[in-house]
Amino acid sequence: MKKLALKIDVDTWRGTRDGVPRLMHMLQQHHAKATFLFSLGPDHTGRAIKRVFRPGFLSKVSRTSVVEHYGIRTLLYGTVLPGPDIGKREAELMREVRAQGFEVGIHTWDHIKWQDYVAGKDAAWTRAEMRKAAERFERIFGEPARTHGAAGWQINDAALAYERELGMLYASDGRGSHPFQPVDAAGQPLGVPQLPTTLPTLDELIGLDGLTADNVHKHILELTEDEPATGHVYTLHAELEGLRLGYTFEHLLVGWKAQGYQLCSCIELFSSLDAASLPNGRVVMGEIPGRSGTLALQA
Fold it and tell me: Is the pLDDT of residue 47 over 70?
């Protein structure tokens, strides 16, 4: 059966507390599996205000109703209000996600800090941030994480290399068209195999070309009519599909099942591949439609 892996990025405390339980319930109703990637440290969402100076950021915010989806309180964390420690507050809920049969992994320690700075940081900074997340994950779950999905699709070569040192099996850190083995500038293997996100996200599409929350699922379903040999990876967010855009996601679940997809976790998709024969590829920073700034792309 053709596979479509559901990768759930959990960015905030609100997304963890409110969005994750709703997504679990919806997925169980549709007999779908998924991979939940958790932010494990402080929620400093309010510090994203500095992105106002990035080209394209204000237009994206106006299209996707950030206040509506994230809530005013969340947008004050790390500035006017102290950032709640997500891993400490929601450890029990995170363990329940695993107990319900879903794959769990690392998204980040501090989402805003990682997304805004990692692309330009050195190995020492990068490893320190990843180590904090890895140690918190192990304290919560009693075992090391086996996968990582970079916050905001922001990554550098040091992070890719450190994923192997941490004992991960695979990662999903960027955008692309098919699974591959990352290599460095000299063409040598770097880190673990990558399962890039192959489909656009709701916040990249809504507000463009007449797409709304009520019809955007039709556009995505058109993109999945023809299935690549190695399957699809769709990234959703606990703050969007887990809250106000839940009905849009439900349309997608129904549509993908009608198209004959097995809705699976990323580890299920990875396990169906021959990791040793994956093509090599570089991870580069570039732009994609609907998203401000640069992000990790499969070259």
Answer: no
Assess contact for 45 and 74: CB atoms under 8 A.
Answer: yes
Site of tokens 């790390």? 78
In this structure, what token pair is assigned to residue 263?
């809705």
Contact in structure between 35 and 104 (CB atoms under 8 Å)? yes
Three-state DSSP class for residue 260: coil
- Residue labelled with tokens 């892996």: 5
Residues 6+ apart with CB under 8 A from 115: 108, 151, 152, 154
- Please say if the pLDDT value at position 110 is more than 90: yes
Percent of the chain with pLDDT over 90: 83
DSSP character string of 95-141:
HHHHHTT-EEEEEESSHHHHHHHGGG--HHHHHHHHHHHHHHHHHHH
Backbone angles phi, psi at 208, to 5 degrees: -110, 140
Question: What contacts 126, CB < 8 A, 6 or more positions away?
Answer: 118, 156, 158, 159, 162
Secondary structure E strands in the chain: 3-10, 35-39, 103-108, 181-182, 232-237, 262-264, 280-281, 283-286, 295-298
pTM attached to this predicted model: 0.91
Q: What is the pLDDT of residue 95?
A: 98
Closest residue by Cα to residue 193 from 231, 147, 131: 147
Q: Stretch 58-87: mean pLDDT, rounded? A: 65
pLDDT at 229 over 50: yes
What's the number of CA atoms in the CB half-sphere (13 Å) around residue 93?
Answer: 23
| Distances 145 to 6, 133, 201, 208 between C-alpha atoms, Å | 18, 9, 25, 37
Per-residue pLDDT tens for 277-297? 999 999 999 999 988 899 999
Residue 88 has pLDDT above 90, yes or no: yes
The tokens 């099996």 sit on which residue?
169
Which residue has 């890719």 as its token pair? 160
